[in-house]
Amino acid sequence: MTDDQPADGFRGPVVCKIVGITYRQLDYWARTGLLTPSMSPEGTGSGTRRLYSYQDIVRLRVIKQLLDAGVSLQKTRRAIQCLEGLLGEDLSSANLVMAEGGTVLAESQEDVFDLLRGGQGVFNVLPLAGVVEQVDAAIHHLGASGSDSTHLAV
């Protein structure tokens, strides 16, 4: 986790800048339950003030990368479920692997190779280190540009 996270969370427009999505996408994903903001779960409808945590932003970045890679929304939902409860651990050394039987978190390259050797049909491998680095860099860039909006829940 980065030290740049405000105690009161990140607002939707800032999240969109960090993740690289439109506000319409963010709103749709919240309304359909793909990812609801963990810091204000009661407010998920249009016009509500949604506050996202750092972990929410990492999940959103994973969603975006999987969808951009052509992974179906259904499989992306399964991938996000796989990450639930695991985001407190060090993800920078893990890989999210989309395989025929579902989604798994491979903690090392050896785990990925074992899946391949075992005859698993791997559809997509997403190194989470890259996702974490991208989120941290985007947050740092917004903070360095003098944008106080990253720290305000307005």
Describe this structure in words.
The longest helix is centred in the last third of the chain and has 17 residues, at 128-144. The strands form two sheets. Strands 4-3-5 form a three-stranded antiparallel sheet, sandwiched between helices. Strand 3 and strand 4 (102-106) form a beta hairpin. The two termini are 23 Å apart. Helix content is 45%, strand content 13%. It is built from six helices and five strands; from the N terminus they run E-H-H-E-H-H-E-E-H-E-H. The protein has a domain at 10-89 and 130-151: Orthogonal Bundle (Multidrug-efflux Transporter Regulator, Chain: A, Domain 2). By secondary structure, it is an alpha+beta fold. The protein is globular.
Write the layout of secondary structure elements.
Blueprint: E1 10-11, H1 12-19, H2 23-31, E2 51-52, H3 54-68, H4 73-83, E3 95-99, E4 102-106, H5 109-117, E5 122-127, H6 128-144
Antiparallel strand pairs: 1-2, 3-4, 3-5
Kindly list the characteristics that best describe this protein.
154 residues, alpha+beta, Multidrug-efflux Transporter Regulator, Chain: A, Domain 2, three-stranded antiparallel beta sheet, two-stranded antiparallel sheet, 6 helices, 5 strands, disordered C terminus
